[in-house]
Amino acid sequence: MEKSKYLDIKQACELLSVSRPTFDKIRKKAKLKEFVFGKRPRFLREEIEKIADPKPISKIHPDARIDLDIFSMAAAIDLESEPNVFDLTRLRSFDPHGVLNLFCALVDRGRQGNKIKLIVEDNFICNHLRNLGFFNQLEIAVPGMLSWPREQLRTEHTDFKYPISLAKISMSKQEVPVVEKLLELLRKQGFSDTIGGYIAWIFGELTDNANTHLRFGGQNDVGAGCYLLAQRYRFSGKSDNECLIIAVADIGPGIHTTIKRNPKYQDLSDKQAFLSAFNPGVSSWADEYDRGRGLTDIFAIALGNRSIFRAESGGHVFMADFKNNTWSLRFDERMPQGTRFSLIIIDHDFEMRSRAEVKRYVADLLSKI
């Protein structure tokens, strides 16, 4: 017999092996969406099953060195040597995507009430994270939940590939001075004015999208906000074009969750909702608000620029290489809560693709999953 898509409170308690009072705490903390049939609330089975089956600890060898970057299959949890203890000395390299993956994982743990311990040493990687403001932003995001031997980090390391530090954006247009500083530095380093305009647009759209989803998800507290980081980049062995890796992240409910709060999309699977968010007009808002173009336009820029594009949300990881016309979509339960967008923008002349082209591309993706 086919399992029902919905569970009542009694069934949810049985699946989780908890009492009714405990379930009430869980549903509040997890912000479970209720579906009322008659007068009785129901909950999505898949959401209850996710809570019942927590993410496993990494199976990677505890002595292995880890690369956290836009191309990597690794996740922050791979640095976890024991519960809530993260060994950053095993981190071999990172880029903005990897920094935000690690940041989101640690903040998520802290907001769940877990005390986090970081293992660091006086090496380039750990000092580089300090100089990017990583540890300071962590302590602000999860006050009192973080311990690390800060006195061990004594060496100053400056990496000019990172023109800005990790920045938090919690309201519209707050990213403007950060991006203006970024563009000023990039111009001094030889980047064109043309690409600068697209970089400003991308950051504006991604931060607005992230904060809109956070507010719609009920996260209006002072700790809510998204984070951005950028790094100069050059493909190995290539010298023709300078590039910039742009990354934006939030620790909200995820794209699929907010999209499915719109009744129009509530019956989509999580995977379908995740990909459909890149279609023009698809939004958590009702149609009369005329929303749902920001992610489409980011996709259009990535297509036209022949960029590398990565999006993560709800465990879904989408990777597109528009230089070589390849893409992949996988589910990775190790990924932290929230949403992360990362793309490599190449400094060359290009034509932004139309929303209709993006729609056709996404339709092709949806037909293949």
Describe this structure in words.
The protein contains twelve helices and 16 strands. With 369 residues, it is α+β, with helices and mostly antiparallel strands. The strands form four sheets. It has a seven-stranded antiparallel β-sheet with strand order 10-11-12-16-13-14-15, with helices on both faces. The chain has a four-stranded mixed β-sheet with strand order 5-6-8-9. It has a three-stranded antiparallel β-sheet with strand order 1-3-2. Helix 7 (176-188) runs antiparallel to helix 8. It is globular, with a radius of gyration of 21 Å. The protein starts with 5 loop residues before the first strand and ends with a helix.
Q: Would you summarize the structure shown here?
A:
This protein is 36% helix and 20% strand. It has helices at residues 9-16, 20-29, 45-52, 96-111, 124-131, 134-141, 176-188, 193-216, 255-259, 270-276, 294-305, 355-367; strands at 6-7, 35-37, 40-44, 66-68, 80-82, 85-87, 91-94, 116-119, 146-147, 167-169, 226-233, 243-250, 308-313, 316-321, 326-331, 339-346.
